[in-house]
């Protein structure tokens, strides 16, 4: 029979696609094509919308990114007899209030230190209470807020004294400290918290500088020497400035891989085990006892994920991602173990769904599983719509959160991260075992029914 034979191996003629004899086949193909197009189209709209939605209202939700304003300038001026009225503190507070009132939904979550907070902070180096800078740093590092604007106690007093004395060593940048933690979330902090916070501070400082100059010139109008001295010291034109303190900078660009796109690859690499294992395991299943089948269904993927997670982690280490800065030598081991439990939690779910859906429909679940895990993992969940809060209990978010702590020293949630992901391992492993046992019993029943049918015939 030639390559271009017009007959089939059984001798029947081959038909053109549009022949009458092919009507049933064409109908079946058309149905499958329509179903495929509908399924893929639905997936595009549903899953892409799910992912795009995590980015959709970031600016409008910025009010959830809390920034504590601690105005010690006003408090110090009130406590010191004969001190000039505070200028900088009130201007910062007013700028924040005005920003929140005039730009609803497009501002950070400005918070104002309570009277209780202010009363416990030191106003002078020798005073009683908690060091204000230490307290502000703790607020940020404990992730109680995303940033702190600390207006130092003697901001107005120092500027006034510098202007009066003509001090050439006056540094206006000590008036305000803007404190944040970039590594908490590279995107949210870098694109929203830092720019919005510094914009507000700059606006408030410009207003305070103008007010300070007007107040000083009004008081020194009869003293030309005082005005000349103040201008020479630059304390009149630039009495206030600010300094930025990034407590946990995102200082290793290569770390973007394991904390962003690497999360996608983590799922994909985990998926690669499933079809290969099912292909190898399939012919063997019916020859094994129940215990052996369940053991293999769990132990083989678990072992594969152990090795695969090591390979994944070693690639990260090979590109000099530092795991020893905050946790010492155990840092890399913790990262490997987190990758392992994350892969296992993700993988057992995929093993289960592959058993239930088969290779034809499993890719749709894989797409869903990638997007549902990745969507809340990149920007801070606080800045997303509330729907995406589910991310706190998913494997990828906890893996990314743990990785940031191991590399950059952000707040330690490792116990929580491991507990959540181990919970996924236990729960999904239990479901996988149950599905495997159920399918085994179903297959046994079908075989028994077929055997009885043949015996009766």
Describe what this molecule looks like in 3D:
- With 457 residues, the protein is mainly α.
- It has two domains: 187 residues, no CATH class; 204 residues, no CATH class.
- 62% of the residues lie in helices and 5% in strands.
- The protein is built from 14 helices and five strands.
- It has a five-stranded mixed β-sheet, sandwiched between helices.
- The longest helix has 45 residues.
- It is elongated, with a radius of gyration of 33 Å.
- The mean pLDDT is 88.
Task: Give keywords.
mainly alpha, 2 domains, 14 helices, 5 strands, five-stranded mixed β-sheet, about 450 residues, about 60% helix
Largest sheet properties? 5 strands, mixed
Beta-strand content estimate: 5-15%
Within the largest sheet, what's the order of strands? 2-1-3-4-5
Number of helices: 14
Report helical residue fraction: 55-70%
Q: State the shape.
A: elongated
Secondary-structure element sequence?
A: HEHHEHHEHEHHEHHHHHH
Query: Can you count the beta strands?
Result: 5
User: How large, in whole angstroms, is the Cα Rg?
Assistant: 33 Å
Total individual domains: 2
Distance between the termini: 40 Å
Q: What is the residue-mean pLDDT, rounded to a whole number?
A: 88
* Alpha-beta classification: mainly alpha
Which regions are unreliable across 5 or more consecutive residues at pLDDT < 50? Answer: none
Secondary-structure topology with pairs:
Elements: H1 23-56, E1 66-71, H2 72-79, H3 88-102, E2 109-112, H4 115-119, H5 132-141, E3 147-151, H6 155-165, E4 176-180, H7 186-219, H8 224-232, E5 242-246, H9 256-259, H10 262-285, H11 290-318, H12 330-374, H13 395-408, H14 414-456
Parallel strand pairs: 1-2, 1-3, 4-5
Antiparallel strand pairs: 3-4
